Each structure stands twice: as structure tokens, then as C-alpha cells.
Amino acid sequence: MDNRQANQRQPFPGQIAALADVPAQVLQLFAALEQRLGSYILGKEEQIRLSLCCLLANGHLLIDDIPGIGKTTLAKALAKVLGLEFRRVQCTNDMLPGDILGVSVFDQRSGSFSFHPGPIFTQVLLADEINRATAKTQSALLEAMEERQVSIEGESRPLPAPFFVIATQNPLEQAGTYPLPESQLDRFLMKISLGYPDHEAERRLLATGGTLVGENEQALIDGQVVSQLQHQVSQVRLSKALVDYLQDILDFSRNSGRFAIGLSPRAGLSLARASQSHALLHGRNFVLPEDVRRVLPYIAVHRLKAADSLAAMTIAELEAAFQAVPVPE
After folding, report:
1. Would you list the DSSP string of 223-249?
2. What is the DSSP letter of 113?
């Protein structure tokens, strides 16, 4: 089946069954979502699944990579296929917080101020090259990402639901970048990298010219179903042994001497939610240790630094380090 035929499939219904009936329906849905997204982002099945995992865990995603890898395409494809409203902000060093949040403008005819909402009032916000914006502008996203609202001139304004921020950043050694502070990084549930495509995927890309995400892309689901799935993630069971395992991981990060600063309680909650989301993606209503192991490096990679050098750690280094934490039977 070619991409055009795949894009004509009928969308899934607007209701998802109760959690007890999840496996068959959810597995079918996720397989369709991953197949459709995979037609735009070639050879990146793992990154696509992690992106869905992050969204369903009601978190936010940071993508760190060089330009031209497909970060923007992934964000746009996610929004279109999931039936969510999408807006993009291209971050620059002269951008102001009002450019993202919105501003109040005085209307001479009415003699009062009227609020003009910024691009943050959307369901999927792509903050492209976020580390090219100044710290003041970066901080404008903090309340929105944590509280799902923005406060402007003493008034709190709720954001749409679901609300998902995908931020991309270029490597810090590139010109014109400002490192994100720890408080900003901690708002992102996961950090991933796309990396170069493998040989076969790049050959297909070169031969076809790639597939653009069209404005008429047919969504498989909509925001209502996404919100239902996010709720169902919170219902996925964490046994007492799994809660003990999560706490052992947090204790190890703080007391092993391997890391400069350990994982925060917010990071622990992120790890729990991501593990539940990963379990649901695999058609289960309970978490296994393998769910925790699979998402842990992507929860920790932007939060932990090596104690001896304060250097950022790789996914492979984190996987190896946390092998020291015993897995429950």
C-alpha cells in the first residue's frame, strides 16, 4: 500500500473502549498511527513510539539534533495524524515573551484593552530551535508547560486540552545558541534525538524526495480521543513492587555518587507516567519493569550529569549505569 492509499483510510471512531477492553483496539490504533507517521519519518520507529509515549503521558518533548534531520516534520506529522491544532514558533534571539503568549492591545473605539492570544494557545506547539531564544523568552513557557495556563496582566487564561509542547534545539556548540536552564529542562518529560537515517531509509528518501505533511492530511483520531487515552494512561496499574523499583531508581540517582545531582520528585512522577504510557502502547493495563527500563534513559538524559566531569551523559551510558538497580522479580 502506498502513502496515498494509506492516507485515505477511515479514521478511528471518536470513542475508545474501557481500559479492560484496551489491548486489541489500542494495539490496532497505535499500529495505524505508527505506520502513518512512519511514512513521513523514515526508519525512526523507536523515536515515533517515544514521541507518542510522551504525548499520552501528558508530558512535553525536547528533540535535540542538528538542522535538517526531520524534527519539524515529526512535530507537524504528529499533530496532523492525531487531529490536533498545530502552530509553530521559530525562536530567535530578538523574540519577546509576548510573541509566544500574546499581548493586550488598547482599542480606541471601545476605550478598553483586548487580549490577542499568541501561538501558545494551540494543542501542539512547536518551539523550533528553542535555544536560540533568550532565557527571558524561554521562561515564558514555564507556567504554560507546568500549569496548562498562562498569566497575563493578573489574569489566568487556560490553554487548550490536550496541550503538547515539542521543542527542538540545536547542539550548543553551534553559533547563536543559549543553553536551557535546569528549571526549563525539567519541564520536558523526555528528550530524544532523531539522528541520521539508516542507509535504506536514506536511500528511499533520496529516491522519492520525501513525503510532505499536507494540509489535507486525514487524521486517524482527534483531540477527544487523545484526551481519553491520556486518562487511560493514568489508570494503568503500578504494583507495589514497581513503585518500590521506581523509588530505588530515584535513590540510586541521588546516592550512588555517579551523578552530580539526582533525579527530582518531578522526574520520578515523569518516569511513572511514561512507564504507564509505554505499557498502554503495548496493549497492557499494568506496568512491567521493561517499561520502566525502556523509558528511563530518555527521562534522565537531560536531567543527569556525570559527577566526575559534569558532562552530559549519553543514552547508552545511562542504560549501563542504571543496570546496577536490581529489577523486581
Report:
1. HHHHHHHHHHHHHSB--HHHHHHHHHH
2. E
Residue 244, number of CB atoms within 10 A of its CB:
11
Let me know how long the chain is: 329
Residue in this structure with the C-alpha cell 537515517, named with its chain if needed: 197
Q: Which residues contact 237 (CB under 8 A, 6 or more apart)?
A: 285, 286, 287
Write phi, then psi, for 103 (nearest 5 degrees). -140, 155
Q: Which residues pair with 89 in a beta bridge?
A: 127
Q: How far apart are CA 95 and CA 176, in angstroms?
A: 13
Summarize pLDDT for 136-162 with one digit per residue, the tens.
Answer: 888 888 778 888 988 877 788 899 999
Q: How far apart are CA 40 and CA 33, in angstroms?
A: 11
Q: State how far the alpha carbon of 48 is from the alpha carbons of 45, 141, 201, in Å.
A: 5, 24, 15
Residue-wise pLDDT for 206-243, tens only, equals 887 766 676 677 889 999 999 999 999 999 999 999 99
User: What would the CATH number be for the domain defined by 43-204?
Assistant: 3.40.50.300
Give the whole-angstrom CA distance, residue 92 versus residue 111.
Answer: 34
Rounded Cα–Cα distance for residues 225 and 245 (Å): 31
Domain ranges of the chain: 43-204
pTM value? 0.87
Q: Which three cell numbers stand for residue 64?
A: 535535540
